[in-house]
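Appendix C: a fully annotated inverse folding record. The material below is reproduced so that readers can follow the format used throughout the book. The structure is listed first as tokens, followed by the designed sequence.
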């Protein structure tokens, strides 16, 4: 399932599919592979991608339902909240990013994840 390159568009598509299947850890992994090259070249999209990576892993905590899962999830969601504003119409793959953010927002409601500007 993992990609062996930095194809951001492909990674975002796989990320969305993984979220739909509740495969949150896999969503995190798929997008992380595309994030590394973005980070290394200091691409403006690196922080947005990192936020989505953390958004996915937040729900993995909830899915596993371990002790303190909700408090862990609420700590992890901070990165997503900090960077989601970077999704603007002029960025590459805007439609895919917008879809990813919509899915994360819906998952936040479903799992009752709060963000209090921690």
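Designed amino acids, in order:
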């Amino acid at each position: 399932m993992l990609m062996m390159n930095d194809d951001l568009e492909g990674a975002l598509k796989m990320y969305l599919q993984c979220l739909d299947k509740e495969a949150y850890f896999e969503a995190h992994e798929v997008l992380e592979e595309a994030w590394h090259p973005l980070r290394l070249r200091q691409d403006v999209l690196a922080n947005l991608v990192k936020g989505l990576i953390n958004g996915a892993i937040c729900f993995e905590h909830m899915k596993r339902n371990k002790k303190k899962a909700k408090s862990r999830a609420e700590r992890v969601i901070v990165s997503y909240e900090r960077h989601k504003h970077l999704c603007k119409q002029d960025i590459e793959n805007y439609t895919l990013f917008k879809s990813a953010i919509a899915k994360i927002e819906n998952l936040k409601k479903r799992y009752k994840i709060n963000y209090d500007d921690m």
